[in-house]
Amino acid sequence: MITEQQQHTERLTTLPVMEAFYTLQGEGTHTGKAAYFIRLGGCDVGCHWCDVKESWDADSHPKYAIDSIVGGALQYPGRMAVITGGEPLMHDLTGLTAALQAAGFHTNIETSGVYPVSGTWDWICFSPKKFKQPHPDIFGKADELKAIIYNKSDFAFAESFVPHLRPDCRLFLQPEWSRSNEMLPLIVEYVKSNPQWQISLQTHKYMNIP
After folding, report:
1. 96-142 tens-digit pLDDT
2. Residue 169: alpha-carbon gap to chain centroid
3. Does 125 count as an annotated binding residue?
4. Could you tell me how far CA 113 lies from the centroid of its own chain?
5. Which range of residues forms the domain containing residue 17?
6. Fewest Cβ atoms nearer than 10 Å: which of 1, 40, 190, 201?
7. Do 187 and 2 form a contact (C-beta atoms < 8 A)?
8. How far apart are CA 111 and CA 12, in angstroms?
9. 129 is in an annotated binding site
C-alpha cells in the first residue's frame, strides 16, 4: 500500500505530461522564439472553447520524473521552456522549475492564475478565464496579461484586471481562434483607441506548425 508520504513525494518529483515538443512560441511577448513546450495534464477551469480538452483529466496522462522531463528538453538547442496545460499550477512546480533553471533554461508559464503560483519563473503569462476566478497571488507576479476575446464582453473582462497588475505588465488581446474573423477587426479598433494594449495572434496556426 502506498503511504501518504510516498504520495506526497511522488507529487513533488513526478508530473503528468500530456505532450512535450520543440517548436516556436506563437503567442504574446515571446512570439517567434524557439521553445520547448511541456503540456501538463489536469485542468478544472472548463473553457468551452478549449482546443486541448483532452488535457483536462490529469489521471489519463503518464507521469514522468522531473529529470526525465528536463532530459527531453535538453535534446534541443533552444533554452526557453514553456510550461502549459491544462492548468499547470494545479501541480507544485517548484522542483521542475529548479531543475530546468539549473540546466540553463529560461522558464515560462502560461496559466489562468486560478491557483497560487509555485515554482521560480522568468516569465509568467496570465490568461484569465471567465469560468473561474483567479487567485490574487497572480496579480503582482504576472509579466504579461493575455486576454482571449471570444465576444464583445471580453474587452471589459480584460480591462477589469489591469488595475491589479504591475505597471510594467504587458497587455495583450488575442482572438479566440474559431472567432478570429469576427473578433480581430474589433480588437484592431480597440487597440487603436487603447494603445496600452497590443494584439497577440496565434501565429503558429497561421504558419501551420504545432
Report:
1. 999 999 999 999 999 999 999 999 999 999 999 987 899 999 999 99
2. 15
3. no
4. 9
5. 4-206
6. 1
7. no
8. 19
9. yes
The cell numbers describing 64, all together, are: 514522468
Q: Is 51 annotated as a binding residue?
A: yes
- What pLDDT is stored for residue 51 in this prediction? 65
33 is in an annotated binding site: no
For residue 198, say whether it is annotated as part of any ligand binding site: no
- Look up the CATH number of the domain holding residue 191: 3.20.20.70
* Residues 195 and 68 sit within 8 Å (Cβ to Cβ): no
Q: Phi/psi at 21 (nearest 5 deg)?
A: -160, 155
The residues with which 171 forms a beta bridge, in sequence order, are 145, 197
pLDDT above 60 for 190: yes
Does the annotation flag 210 for ligand binding? yes
pLDDT reported for residue 6: 43
53 is in an annotated binding site: no
Contact partners, residue 33, CB within 8 Å, separation at least 6: 24, 25, 78, 80
Q: Is 89 annotated among the ligand-binding residues?
A: no
Cα 50 off chain centre by:
13
DSSP codes of every residue in 129-174 = BTTBPPPGGGTTT-SEEEEEESSTHHHHHHHTTGGGS-TT-EEEEE
Q: How far apart are CA 125 and CA 27, in angstroms?
A: 10
- Indicate the length of the chain as a whole number: 210
Does the annotation list 49 as a binding residue?
yes
User: In the numeric block, which cell numbers belong to residue 163?
Assistant: 488595475
Number of domains forming the structure of the chain = 1
Residue 84 marked ligand-binding: yes
